Amino acid sequence: FDYLGYRFYADDTGKLSRTIKPKKQKALRARLAQLTRRVSGISTAQTVQQLNCWLVGVFGYFKHAHRRVLATLDAHVRYRLRRIFAKRHGMAGCAKRWKAHQRWPNAYFVTLGLFSMATARDVILHSHRGLT
Length: 132
Hints:
Elements: E1 2-3, E2 6-10, E3 16-20, H1 22-35, H2 44-62, H3 67-88, H4 97-103, H5 106-112, H6 117-128
Antiparallel strand pairs: 1-2, 2-3
Helix pairs in contact: 1-3, 3-6
């Protein structure tokens, strides 16, 4: 069943799981597209700062969703940022996707200070279990 942006379902083991309902995921991706326009003219630092504010808010609400969903949203954020960087470096086009991933690996976004929802969820789970 769906409730307040979440979709609750029983997984293969019968355990109740939560995910973000598809309609809300589509809305989140639409908002992300607005924040990460390739021709915005905003510096990388400002773009990451704006994204972090938005991502922290999204995570604050959807932190109980399944980790896989949050990791997918994180991957989409990095994909959008790679598209911006590729455009700025004259590498635009889907055929250059692999080169963009090699040039700006996931670790690069950590150095930029980009907020990761999946990592934050793992930190919260470990701190609640006393594993810090």
